[in-house]
Amino acid sequence: MIKTKPCKGTGKAKGYGCNKDVRAEYRKYGLGISCCYADWLFNSDEGKIKVKNAVIKASKPRKDLEQATKIHKDRKGLTTLIKSVVKVCHEYIRLRDKFKPCISCGTSWNSDFQAGHFKKAEKFTTIKLHEHNINGQCQQCNLRKDGNESEYSIRLPERIGKENYKELVRLADLDHSVNFHWDREELNKVRKEYQIKLKQLKQ
Prior knowledge:
The protein is mainly alpha-helical.
């Protein structure tokens, strides 16, 4: 025998039914799915709250995905921007230091010289684009001697001036104590500055 119960509503939907006999498997909150449940769901205060919560729950994964996608695009775009700033910065450094000896070992300049960092770019974020922290360096020192920082520190004060050297060391000491992240506005500003300096050198 098929068991049925009258469509009266229970809990949140109590008293909202039409009293028709409905099979148990076709009931929700005591209401018949085919007769009264939809009416309660979209027209009662309790039902509207349930619909609203269901919509929010269903849309959350999509919102999370959209947010994650946006963050990924922003990071990718920022990475591309940083690379473009580094490119123009290093081009300026190589042209500025053309014909100057290697900042570390003193080897005479040649066309293979690179823009070498005193304090490593990957470790000192705040000064990775600071022009006093980047100087013309031979490949031997920059690549094979991992920057040759000990010799770099000997010749750098003379190259940029003692006061500038002290300030650079101070900034390096502060670097790890600040929570610094490059943003688009600052990167665009730095890129513009190096583009102007580079243009002036080429004139």
